[in-house]
Write a structure and sequence with these properties.
By secondary structure, this protein is mainly alpha-helical. It has eight helices and four strands. A four-stranded mixed sheet has the order 1-3-2-4, covered by helices on one side. A hairpin with a 3-residue loop joins strand 2 and strand 3. Helix 3 packs antiparallel against helix 4, helix 5 runs antiparallel to helix 6 and helix 6 runs antiparallel to helix 7. The chain starts with 12 loop residues before the first helix and ends with a helix.
Length: 235
């Protein structure tokens, strides 16, 4: 029995179809939801959803507080590390337009990051290190540049002992953030609100990750950059 709150949203025909499938299926076949859907498309069932890669599987039990679903590390490890074919995403000579570097890449990077985080929580740092390195191998910066999701890798890399990679990633991301902030704030291009906020977020995330993992001295120049541009943006 599933007992949950649908919320106060309108119920559309598409929602009724999904609810009918769930009601009639009786757990005879797995029911999956894409991990790229809008929040409302999950019907308020996220606490019953197990992330198994790039999709959520509806489960007959609830994990209270799992507002974005929960990770089954064993299943997801097999999915991402053994059963997914990452074709050409590491080829710097392949052109990726904004659509491809949007949802497909972001979703994949989030999946790797969530799996690594769960493995770290389970004190399986060796497997978490393999997951992070696999992600950097199949979607390297040279082919698909780091994005706002990538900055979350810094702390995880530090936690699994990949300090050199974490520092190199921090330097690369911070350098690009500085270029963007110079362009918009110093260059007077004030129409880049989203880019400004993204760059400030990434700088601040790097600073906090370094401070929280014994790299306070390394964090100082990035903190100086953040303070400088935050003050400019706040005017």
């Amino acid at each position: 029995t599933l007992s949950w709150s649908f919320g106060k949203n309108d119920v559309y025909k598409s929602d009724l179809i999904q609810l009918d499938i769930i009601a009639q299926n009786n757990w005879e076949r797995p029911v999956y939801f894409s991990s790229t859907l809008m929040t409302s498309s999950y019907l308020g069932l996220k606490e019953f959803m197990q992330l198994e890669g790039l999709a959520y599987r509806l489960m007959p039990f609830k994990v209270p507080g799992a507002k974005d679903g929960f990770v089954n590390a064993d299943v997801m490890y097999d999915r991402l590390m053994k059963n997914t074919f990452w074709r050409e995403m590491n080829n710097p000579n392949t052109y990726y337009n904004e659509f491809y570097t949007g949802s497909p890449v972001i979703t994949s990077r989030i999946a790797f990051l969530r799996l690594a985080d769960q493995l770290i929580r389970e004190n399986k740092k060796d497997k978490a290190r393999d997951v992070l390195n696999r992600s950097l191998q199949v979607m390297p910066d040279t082919a698909i540049p780091y994005d706002q999701i990538s900055v979350g890798y810094v702390e995880s890399l530090l936690q699994v002992g990949e300090t050199a990679k974490a520092l190199a990633m921090s330097k690369a991301i911070a350098g690009r953030c500085e270029q963007n902030l110079e362009y918009y704030l110093v260059g007077g291009h004030y129409d880049g609100g989203r880019e400004i906020n993204s760059a400030l977020y990434q700088l601040n995330t790097i600073v906090q990750a370094l401070k929280d993992n014994g790299q306070a001295n390394v964090a100082k120049p990035y903190e100086t950059l953040f303070t400088k541009y935050y003050a400019m943006a706040d005017k």
